[in-house]
Amino acid sequence: MLTLNLNALPSSSFKIIPFHANYPLYTQTQLSIPTNLNYPFTNTATRKFRTFQLKAGFWESIKSGMRKNNTTQVIDPESIDEEDEEPLPQEFVLVEKTEPDGTIEQIIFSSGGDIDVYDLQALCDKVGWPRRPLAKLAAALKNSYMVACLYSVRKSPGSEGNEQKLLIGMARATSDHAFNATIWDVLVDPGYQGQGLGKTLVEKLIRALLQRDIGNITLFADSKVVEFYRNLGFEADPEGIKGMFWYPNQ
Length: 250
Known about the structure:
The protein is an alpha+beta fold. 18% of the residues lie in helices and 24% in strands. It is globular and about 60 Å long.
């Protein structure tokens, strides 16, 4: 398990750099978790963003609100109105390019609308993930705290209204809505890897979670992509804590 290390991140504001088709996915630029959280695409928002100071360590954040004066109590979290929580952007264009035949392809980030589980299964097949029951995939999406997707939308000359839309990326997060969140299922179509799209998905989820004062952000990473997540601010075994798993006896 990898955990986002907020203390190790630079304090300067993070700036989005426009994506280009030649940007590498495994970029060596470390993500800075900002305190002002002003991304270029937020100029359409009408509300002021809340910023938070995250000071608790890993264990302190987990234990906070659980023990007081040696007695266990349930402490209600500070209520946060829905209007104070900035949702993920519903949809915006990340990349647009025109092919020699005039076809325009847009890479669109989306957090609105339902995901077709058959399209998601097809995407999982492309990256070589084992198949999971469709009913469970649908339940996992429904019960996620946040879901972000990437689509390729192709528009051929003279074919207005007949766009080709393909799911090419997804990431989601689950959370207790207070202290902890875990990022799951970060995947990008192999044909679109190497363009910084996976990095974009993770950054957008981190940003939205931090705006909700959720400071413990974890994920599970295959050994092949650990370095990718390290460059986004995650670290393995923070404070010596190990991820542990329970499996039923075979």
